[in-house]
Amino acid sequence: MAKYIKNPVAIDAMEYSIGLEDGFDEVEEAVKFGLDLDNYINPYNSPKIPYIKTLEGKHYISRGDYIITGVDGERYPCRRSIFLKTYTLLSR
Q1: What are the phi and psi torsion angles at 36 (to 5°)?
Q2: 7 domain-assigned
Q3: Does residue 77 carry a pLDDT above 90?
């Protein structure tokens, strides 16, 4: 199997804060769309679950997630632990 390395591409990202989401779902709706409540931490004490519409569908935002804007303007959430292992700050 061939091995590849990811090209270094600068992206825009920031830790999630209210206003960065595309919408909110009720818990029941989010569970229907596949939200795993056992591994989810709501960023707010709220019955509403924030999400971002991605190319793959809705992705729910958990506490500490970063919101990344990719090279084609696509947005998606990324878990803090993965983000900090994958990206290095270039500038603010």
Answers
A1: -95, 100
A2: no
A3: yes
pLDDT of residue 84: 93
Q: Is 48 left (phi over 0), alpha (psi -120 to 50) or beta?
A: beta
Residue 51 lies in a domain: yes
The range of the structural domain enclosing residue 63 comes to 12-86
Decide: helix, strand or coil at residue 14: strand
Q: Are 48 and 26 in contact (CB under 8 A)?
A: yes
> What are 3-51's pLDDT values in tens digits?
988 888 889 999 999 999 999 999 999 999 999 999 999 998 888 999 9
- For the record, the structure tokens of 42 come out as 């709501």
Q: Tell whether 16 is covered by a domain.
A: yes
> Which residues have CB under 8 Å from 86's CB, separation 6+?
78
